[in-house]
Amino acid sequence: MTQSMRIGRKIGAVIGAIVFLIFGVVPGFYFGSYGTVVVLSHLMGGPVEPNILVRMLVVVGILLGLFCIGSVSIVLGALFGTVVGYLTEAVSAPSKAKELAAAKAENK
């Protein structure tokens, strides 16, 4: 793996984390809590009483939703950064090969 791909992956992961912090925190809370309430209402067969167990499970659901959306954002950002690094390397590789050949020709 080339240096530009490694740097692209790191920059993409940081951008993915920033995008998560800007756009992903609220959906993480919403989908995590709503999904937990839906699952609990199906398990209990009706409306859920707001007792301490349900509240604890909703907090766990929120944390799970935040973790899932955060990890997806970071992984997709790293993947995008790696692709950009690969494309950069593919575009710049022919020019580097020409420079290397010219340097070898001068040394002979």
Oligomeric organization of the protein chains: single chain
Order of helices and strands: HH
Largest sheet: none
Secondary structure tally: strands: 0
Low-confidence stretches: none
User: What structural category do the secondary elements indicate?
Assistant: mainly alpha
**Global geometry:** rod-shaped
Q: Provide the β-strand percentage band.
A: under 5%
First-residue to last-residue Cα separation:
31 Å
The overall pLDDT, averaged over residues, is 89
Q: Count up the domains.
A: 1
Using the CA coordinates, give the radius of gyration: 24 Å
Question: Descriptors for this entry?
Answer:
108 residues, mainly alpha
Describe what this molecule looks like in 3D.
This protein is an all-alpha fold. It has one domain. Helix content is 91%, strand content 0%. The chain contains two helices and no strands. The chain has helices spanning 3-44, 52-107. The longest helix is centred in the last third of the chain and has 56 residues, at 52-107. The mean pLDDT is 89.
Give a quick summary of the entry.
The protein is an all-alpha fold and 108 residues long. The chain has helices at residues 3-44, 52-107. Helix content is 91%, strand content 0%.
